[in-house]
Amino acid sequence: MAVAMELDQLILNIAGIMIRELKLEDVTPETFDPDLDLVDEVGVDSMDLATVALVLRDQYRVRIDEDDYPKLKTLRLISQYIHGKLAAGA
Asked: pTM of the entire structure?
């Protein structure tokens, strides 16, 4: 995975992963609002987030610490987290 991936493209990619893994309906990566609160507005629970974290770990080869889960409240925050890890070479 290219480290230099643009954040906007990463948001679209992660939106696609979330839509597929969480079986979200009536939304596409292009229409997924990256600033929605995943718990309060999308209905994601801790098991869903753990599932997505495992897929993202495998897809991008970055570790998402469980202690960081509470910080990852939106698609944008998750994407920024992954982007930062990729840029740092983690």
From this structure: 0.88
